Amino acid sequence: MRERVPKTFRDYLPEAANWITLATGEYYPDILPDACDLYKPVLVMFGQYLRESESSPALFRRICELREVWMRIQLARVFRKYVCPPLSVEMLKKRPQLR
Fold first, then answer.
1. Model pTM greater than 0.70?
2. Average pLDDT estimate for 20-39
3. What is the secondary structure of 14-75 as a DSSP string?
């Protein structure tokens, strides 16, 4: 039997956008009602921003303008999940400079 060589971080680079690092912060429950209860403030705010934005770039800019880091990251995660899946999770952690 052939010995398995452990993967390095570099091996995951081509599919990096598909992985989420849970080093800190809240967890995402597997049960939908629990997730909805835990993230209700995030989902309510995302819905409000969604209704008030004329386009997905406008929605993302609005999310990026938030000063509260935890809420901005949570909203950006929802944005990534439902609006722009190819967006890297790591890109969501920093607040971009907006023009």
1. no
2. 63
3. GGGGG----SSS----SSHHHHHHHTHHHHHHHHHHHHH-SSHHHHHHHHHT---HHHHHHH
